[in-house]
Amino acid sequence: MNSTDLLAVAGNGARLDEAFGCATVDVAPERWADVAQVLRDDPRTAFGFFDWLSAYDDLDAGLAVVVRLWSVAHRQSVVLRTHVARDGGRLPTLSGVWAGADWHERETFEMFGIEFAGHPNLVPLLLPNGFEGNPLRKEFVLASRVAKAWPGAKEPGESDRDVARDATAARGRRRARPPGVPNPGAWGPES
After folding, report:
1. CA-to-CA distance for 94 and 155, rounded, in angstroms?
2. CATH number at residue 97
3. Does residue 79 sit within a domain?
4. What contacts 84, CB < 8 A, 6 or more positions away?
5. For all residues of the chain together, what is the average pLDDT?
6. Could you tell me if residue 84 is inside a domain?
7. Is 32 within 8 Å of 55 (Cβ atoms)?
8. pLDDT at 173 over 70
9. Of 9, 60, 164, 184, which has fewest CB within 10 angstroms of its CB?
């Protein structure tokens, strides 16, 4: 299958990006389920195997939702991607196209807050009852990183005892905060 066939099947408005031997098809959110269905059913593509679905925080571009598909007939994979708004992001479910999307959409809903319209059971999957927030979004504060020292705060071979003894030498070095930890005083009991 070539990129021309892939774009023809995906339809108007789809963009194709090929990198590292994998094609990524970008579509508008309102065409998400339709393009997925066509990619599965059209014999030129025949992406009948659902591999995984997830999302990532693309900051100003919103939340990107990606699904990786495999064609047994053509022995090729494709990534289908779309972007939704950070607040109120919503897509139609793919669980009617591939039953395997059910669990992945539940996880993505829980971790990123993206709703999948028409999903048969969109309830929390991994986090405890009453958990607030979406832990895989970039603005989510990782409280455990604030409470426990980050292993990357020390140089290789350095121990807590060495740091205390060489406090004078350590003062000159700027300590890096681990990812997900806000500036001191911006969050927590001291703020």
Report:
1. 46
2. 3.30.460.80
3. yes
4. 29, 62, 63, 65, 90, 91, 114
5. 85
6. yes
7. no
8. no
9. 60
What's the domain count of the chain? 2
Cα atoms found within 13 Å of the Cα of residue 126, Cβ hemisphere only: 14
Q: How far is CA 60 from CA 47, 82, 83, 87, 157, in A?
A: 31, 14, 11, 12, 39
List helix spans (H) across 70-147.
101-112, 143-147
The amino acid sitting at 107 is E
In sequence order, what are the residues at sequence separation of 6 or more whose Cβ sits closer than 8 angstroms to the Cβ of residue 185? Answer: 191
**Residue-wise pLDDT tens digits, 94-143:** 999 999 999 999 999 999 999 999 999 999 889 998 899 999 999 888 77
Q: How far apart are CA 40 and CA 38, in angstroms?
A: 5
Q: Which domain holds residue 173?
A: 141-191
- Domain co-membership, 167 together with 107: no
Residue 109 lies in a domain: yes
**Assigned domain for 106 exists:** yes
